[in-house]
Amino acid sequence: MSSEGSSYGDIHRYEPPRESTAAALAIVLLTVVEIIFVGLFTYGLIGGWGLSEVGNMFLGGILAVIFIDLAFILLLYRKEFLPDVMIVKKRRRKWEDLYVREDDVDGTPFSEESPWEGVKRALYPYYKR
């Protein structure tokens, strides 16, 4: 579904989420696996596995699996259960708001100020801010 509005904030495109049952079941199963690995990691911390070199690497591997599993859960949720919405935004240069004021967007002529001031302004963008 698209709209013809072109003013700032109008919804340009809206696609509803698929909300598939297979994705919901996959999220539930991945959540169960996540809980199992969190429990194993907690048991390893309490049991003192981290005191040996091999146990410490094992705990690091479990922690990596926990975050990878969480990433897949969030990826499935975003892909299947959040709508795809594109809104109209104001286009501007990426650096425009960070470094210069609105009246200095086009720059200043080199001859108006001393050469040293121009070099300082080029090297240090937050000059006189």
Automatic annotation (TrEMBL):
What name is this protein filed under?
Uncharacterized protein
Query: Which taxonomic lineage is given here?
Result: Archaea, Methanobacteriati, Methanobacteriota, Stenosarchaea group, Halobacteria
Can you tell me where the transmembrane regions are? Answer: 21-46, 58-77
Top-rank taxon, per record: Archaea
The yes or no answer to whether the keyword Transmembrane helix is present is yes
Please provide the record's keywords in A-Z order. Answer: Membrane, Transmembrane, Transmembrane helix
